[in-house]
Amino acid sequence: MKTIYILLKKKIIQAIGVWILIPISIGIIGLSCGCESFVETESPKNELVTASVFENEASAVSVVTGIYSRMMGSIGFASGHYQSVTIQGGLYADELDRYRATSAFYENALTADESAVNSRWWQEPYQYIYTCNVILEKLNLSENISDVVKKQLEGEAKFIRAFCYFYLVNTFGDVPLHLNSDYLENSDKERSPVNDVYNQITSDLKDAHNLLPEDYILSNYEKTRPNKYVASALLARVYLYLEDWHQAEVFASEVINNTTLYALEPDLSKVFLKNSHEAIWQLAPVNPHLNTKEGFRFILTSAPPRTQALTENLVNAFNDTDQRLVNWIKSVTDGENIWYYPYKYKIRAADEVTEYSMVMRLAEQYLIRAEASTQNEDFLGAQMDLNKIRNRAGLDDTLVSSKEELLTAIYKERRLELFTEWAHRWFDLKRTGRANVVLGNAKPNWDDNDNLFPIPTEELLRNSKMTQNPGY
To answer: Where is the SusD-like N-terminal domain positioned along the sequence (predicted)?
Structure first.
């Protein structure tokens, strides 16, 4: 009965929307608010988006920028908060230990009934995808938005859709492809094979690459809205995952070679500042008295920790002379024991905003190109890119030169450089075939089925065509 009621409600809202102009301000609030009262598990979060919102450029832009506000206003997916990809991905791999409270992510004991998997890892990205699909449809119908703004918004919508699908496909494997805003049609979609999902991701990113401007002028030169090179950076990562080494190298080089916009920060303490030279794409905070939720959640103020701390294995992986150990890791003690925590973000809470949440940065692009060059047997080029990251950390040039040695060195550097950022460690272990060995040794409950999350029970009940991942 509940499902029937929701479907009827959807029909009524669609019908009403034809002849009643819902105020633009309400539509925008519904899009940008991070409040849980707007979340409905059976229907999209943003049913208030109507054609009227796209009658002028300001309100149309607000629909897109509202997605970023929702991401940061949430406690999940992209927020940096405790149910985000960053923290729960770190717990799921071997970066973070959990204290005081149990965690199914840390214990690798997820079930299909885990609420965070359903609401934060599944529903939330699909809600953003739904909004992007609405944007793409309504833009085509609007006669009051200039071609320049239309191109920007279309590019952003396609980029965000690709970004969300990248995390969905790497977390769940085969997932349904929703490419329009017809909720009834999408509610019983079958899972699309991983290759089909990646084809859509690359298609969207190539479109975004062609549509988006080359600078950050439309965000007042803040790096908080994607431009062409943000699309390039994600394309480089996607092609690395697809083992298309040539294309990975091409798109990483496109970002690296733009020295006007991007440069490695020589001072490690400045990497995560807002609009840093190294930043490619960041999200600005929306919560009062906070900079980033990563800083709020990671920085420990007492011992023992109440939430999470870095694993001893990760801390011990750093050379004593590595400046990342000095700049990006701090500790607390109770006099007997020491716990270490990420200190990439230096601000736990403050009214003045000096840090933005880093989504993509230049160091990753050097490591992508180093790995792609190694696979293409350009060992000198790989060494040069690897040494850029090592030297910035105060380390000497690498001495390894063979393909296998270089790949091992690059994987280690990715671990040390990108720790507790956006589940890079877990995804790296999976895509390189090392997850079962590394995590099997590090975590007592790990098994092969843990390479994918379970499809949420709620989705299985809602969609008769949905199938479950093995082992759940």
So the answer is: 104-240
